Amino acid sequence: MNGKPPAWKIIAAFAALYVIWGTTYLAIGMMVRTIPPYLGAGSRFLAAGTLLYAFLRVRGAAKPTRRQWGWAALAGFLLLVGGNGSIVWAQKTVPSGITSIIVATEPLWIVLVSWLLFRGGRPTLLEGAGILGGLAGMVFLIGPSLFAHGSEIDPFGASLLIFATISWAFGSMVSRHADLPDSAPMAMSMEMAAAGAAMLLLALPKGDWAAFSPSTVSPVSVMGWLYLIVFGSWIGFVAFFFVMRHCRPSRAATYAYVNPVIAVFLGWLAAGEPLTARTLVSAAVILASVAIVVTFSPKG
Q1: Whose CB among 48, 53, 94, 167 lies 3.0–4.6 Å from 189's, allowing a Cys bridge?
Q2: Where do the structural domains in the chain lie, given as residue ranges?
Q3: DSSP 247
């Protein structure tokens, strides 16, 4: 790591995470309308990763080592296949706003994973309260759906989202500690390319290739796919990787405050997703819990 970057770069990276990642939930919902989830996400990441990698190499970036490619593949699998891939799959049945609220618990998992596996320090009493509060809010949001017939939240989709947040937490910490190129764009291009290839392979047994027909792909899905490449991948993921490399994990995770607000509003405005009292209460509890965890995390 080459020292602390200028403040304006950190501010710009956070701004990208706050705004852009809040809109990607709607874009994912647009993409999976007519493009199978793993096929859409895999082609998105493979295209974004290989194009960015080629651009950086032409600009003179150093060639990564085999060891760095190995770490990039592991981090990419956890972040993008287990994390983002599960989110994309879940959004076939779970509204974008609900998805963003469940995914907002990622900082809670990051604190736990950092403590249990990466020597990140034991959570304080307030952090522990925040973690429990966030989990309680999530149970309140999706719990009734586990027992109600024809419920508003698909239980399998909700389970996928919980798995996605845990996988993302592991991937975030691996990206922070692994032997990867100092250049955030180069490291992220490698992770995206490796994860995209893996996702396209996983799309075979999942049946995405068999279900895909180019003639049925709508312009809306194409727009969502392109938006995810340019904004979600090239700008958003590179910004996330940059922030994870230069800020504490709990500070880097503050995007979880803003993303659900943007996602819920856009889902209601553009996709007609309902805003129920349970959704709003759960969102308030989860975001307040995340705020406690981030605010009262130990310095360092």
Answers
A1: 53
A2: 7-295
A3: S
